[in-house]
Amino acid sequence: MVPTTKKLVISGYYGFRNSGDEAVLKSILTALEEESQRSNVTIEPIVLSIDPAWTTSMYGVRAVHRMKLKEVREALKESDGLISGGGSLLQDATGLKSIPYYLGVIKLAQWLKKPTFIYAQGIGPVNRKIFNPMIKSVFKSCTYVSVRDEQSADYLRRLGLKWNQIHVVPDPVMGLPLPEKASVQNSGENVASDTVDATDAVDGGNSTVVAHDASGVDVDANITLEQQQVHPKASETKHVKLPVIGVSVRFWEADRKELTAIAAGLKKLAARKAVHLRFMPFHLPDDVQASRFIMEMLGDITRKGSEISITEDLTDPQLMLEEVSRCDLMIGMRLHSLIYAASRYVPPVGISYDPKIDQFLLRLESEPAGDTGSLDGDKLAEQVSGLLDQRSQWLKQHEDRITALKQEAREPAKQIITYLGRKG
Question: Is the pLDDT score of 233 beyond 90?
Answer without folding.
Answer: no
